[in-house]
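Record type: ASSEMBLY
Status: queued
Input:
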Amino acid sequence: MKEIRIFVPASVANVSCGFDVLGFCLAPVGDEMVIRKSSEPGIRITKIEGQDLPMEVDNNVAGVAAKALLEAYETAVGFEIEIYKHIKPGSGIGSSAASAAGAVYGINKLLGEPFDPKSLIRFAMQGEKLASGSPHADNVAPVLLGGFTLVRCSDGPDVIKLPVPDELVATVVHPKIELKTAHARSVLKQQISLKDAISQWGNLAGLVSGLYENDYDRISRCLVDKIVEPSRALLIPAFSELKEAAAEVGALGCGISGSGPSVYALSRGMTTAEEVAQKFSEVLSGIDISFETHISPINTVGIRILEEK
Amino acid sequence: MKEIRIFVPASVANVSCGFDVLGFCLAPVGDEMVIRKSSEPGIRITKIEGQDLPMEVDNNVAGVAAKALLEAYETAVGFEIEIYKHIKPGSGIGSSAASAAGAVYGINKLLGEPFDPKSLIRFAMQGEKLASGSPHADNVAPVLLGGFTLVRCSDGPDVIKLPVPDELVATVVHPKIELKTAHARSVLKQQISLKDAISQWGNLAGLVSGLYENDYDRISRCLVDKIVEPSRALLIPAFSELKEAAAEVGALGCGISGSGPSVYALSRGMTTAEEVAQKFSEVLSGIDISFETHISPINTVGIRILEEK
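Status: finished
Output:
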């Protein structure tokens, strides 16, 4: 194989009580990437469409992730990367993660898969480090493994793939405001009360058990975040109205996607997820903010191969 | 049925990263209780052996729990309670929980089981409230349901029974020092860092997934407590030596049981659990502290009926 064209999905991290550890993978929204072998060693970004992003390898998340992989695997072959960007950078649904994960996934395939998917995570994390300053895995893990993933610690990440109840469907709305990750981070309280923390870890543990047992009611009861959401909600237009609207039509839960401004909801079944999307649209139309909505079952596979040459 | 004699097991709460939410039930160590119908309405404690505990219903955890049940279920029948105490109060393995849980379990049986086991928890919690000032469920839940239990919040508790990997065996050592719960509580930091909290909820989520998947290595990696253990460890003689000794012989993890002074370890298989017990004995003999050790598979059933009349 000389060339591979892939679909690289968006993802939702910081899933309510799973702040900084839990993420899941979306299906219909994502980038396309082409990775091509080259006789010239090293990495080159040869094309970027859809967004104005740096072509220099060391300033591009895909480039940095790809280089991290090649540092761990000696080869005389080089690689060209084309990126067809559909995920909006800064939207909070893992735009940089998609680029970083796609690059290492494609190169690994073209090299004959010397690494298993979990081992690719640490390379992709280097792209995230470039994007946000810290090498977190909570978006690249669901993109590379599919489904729901739990990342125990982001230094030497211990990544656990969790089961996905069949009927779970996500609705994501991206209110088109600019929200810098640095700003979303600056509002985080670095000290929290033990009481709130206990409630949070009880909820996350309950959520994990709900995923294993297909217990939608339990999932719903546990999709709560008393720690980060109250601070960050203030940065997102009409967040409490969006959340109430989702609850009104029966969503299991609703929270901030990544560090925002996108807002996700999880529902049981497509019908409810569509009603949530409708409600989200009404809320944001009402305050004259432009937005984009996505409805998606949980993508249990992750990256998809579109073409091999 | 006029009378029931039951075995009411000890339990371990605050299981490392599961502080305040996760507990499990022990098998060989526990109290015996006899609950007997009486034509005189109300509750009476008619006998307590093994410990010097209050006979007055309102000052006895079993009495208070039993009264809470009868407030929710009108009956002309009364009940006599006999308690044969083998669990040492203040040892940190759920002595008060056993008395409270046993009382409501026995009365519920004699009434023809108007309540399911989960519904009994809130009555037993009233006994815990008398014992420690707060109506927590993290010991009574594993006693009443068996196995590992997760208690999401202790007000209106949402209790989840978790699966138990077959080969999991607990070793518990009770160093016989007096450690007041109030003292163990006073050393808790009420504010904690977000970073430590994230690591804790990642570990608890990982531990829960490890229980579902019989993944002993993952269970081991996740049995960590960066928040409460560092403060409370100082109150327990030779805690770090006990913990190191357990690790040396291959225990999966080791931590404080309840609010101490008992220390628990979890191992894969009886042989390792016995080696841990041996090591615990050596450590505490070396510093001339008297102690008692227990080795126990996880009790997945909870309370056991010994005799019905």
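Annotation: Chain A touches chain B through 39 residues (CB under 8 Å).
Annotation: The longest helix of chain A spans residues 194-213.
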